[in-house]
Amino acid sequence: RGVAKSLCGATSSRTSSGQSYRTSAPSILARRHGLQHSTDRCRAYVLPAHVGADASDAAAGARPGLECQGPSDQHGVTLTCGSGVPLSWVQVPQPLCQQAQCAAAGYSGASPTLVVCMVSQPLSPGVVKAPALPCAAEESTTGDEAAQAALLRGGQRPKLSASTLRRRRRQRATLLASLRRSEELATDNRETIVQLQGVGDVADYTALVDAINAGGEARAAAIASLHGRVAPLSFDAAGCRAVQLALQSADGPAVAEFASELQGHVREAIRSPHANYVIQKVIEVLPAAHFCFIAEELQGQAVEAACHRYGCRVFCRLLEHCPTAPAPAALVDEALMEATALCRHAFGHFVAQSVLEHGLPMQRRRVAAVLLADPLGFARHRSARHVLEGALEHAGTEDRAALVAAFLGCGPGELAELAQDQHGAHLARALLELPGGATAELRTRFRVAVGQLRSSRHGRRLAEDLGL
């Protein structure tokens, strides 16, 4: 009974060897093997068993049903039923280690036996289960808890709204894109990273960081030990922290020498989840003359680097610390050849924002001109609206005035549609926070279209904030 009760949901058991098996609910087994009714039970025999607590009550309470047996090893539990179908989703239960208890369970073998009681129950389509592997991730539930509860009570699954379905599609697309990027990164950089990590003897990074923080002779010795090893350490999760700390703590000549060791590895480094931080630190602590090689090595791949999840950070650091240097300025000009795509990209829009804040006047005007081509379209875009907000704050006086005039040129209905949009509502608030007479004019436009505003959730919130 205790085992059957624990199996009503996803649970975690620990064997006597100390390995933790996180497994799914038994309803998956019931569905896969045709146990359609709530009265169906199945009993599984698992060999070998670990010596443990008494489970005779659970065995006695199990009704006859599907019988399976198979090995249990460090990879989890795999059962095979009479039809030869392997069952990879199973709870590791308490063992039966006495002959009488084995007989009570209906098993007459000489080896100890484990008993699993699996209860058939409805399986929600929104639940994704994890395999029974040691220390595997726990179950991930994509459905609402209320929907799960309704199913278990025998009710109907509530209909999902259009916004919920869109959100789930975006989440799936983001996950798949992330997996593809990880695979591409591993394929593109595997040979380079393996070659780099093979250089030198990687020390205890914790001790290295502690020595640098200690100061004095310990710091000097630790920093000296990094010479010739900056590149391989930069691509390591722990080693990159030691390199960043050394770049921040060492004197000027040593830092310049460390930076020079990264030459020839910049394209790989900005795509690394670890080495990109080292590149950023080099830009932060050194004069532009010592890290212009970073911009030079990225030329020809400016757009790709600016739209990379890690490369965009390097672009932002270059714009913050040396926007007027020839090599970084040329790199930004190359990226702005695709300014429209940059503004709409999930990572590239950070670079466009940084251009508006730190770029050269001509570069800032180029971004503003792109935004003026379709202000309402950019305002409704989840990434581009951040660039528009940055332009209203950091663009030149003439460009800001042109953007405000473009929105004021819209009719009350168009502005109301903008405020009804999830992303456009943020831009509408940014417009209302601008100084000058534009705010009063916008309030008047929204007051005229207050009925249209209140027909959507986002517009209703804006109307309430404005007191309409």
Automatic annotation (TrEMBL):
Taxonomic superkingdom: Eukaryota
Biased composition range(s): Polar residues: 9-25
One GO term describing the cellular component: cytoplasm
SMART domains named in the record: Pumilio (SM00025)
Key word Glycoprotein present: no
Pumilio repeat placement: 261-296, 297-333
GO MF annotation terms: mRNA binding
Region (Disordered): 1-25
Keywords: Repeat
Domain (PUM-HD) ranges: 128-468
Record-level GO BP terms: post-transcriptional regulation of gene expression
Pfam families with a match to the protein in the record: PUF (PF00806)
Protein name per its UniProtKB record: PUM-HD domain-containing protein
Native organism: Alexandrium monilatum
UniProt lineage: Eukaryota, Sar, Alveolata, Dinophyceae, Gonyaulacales
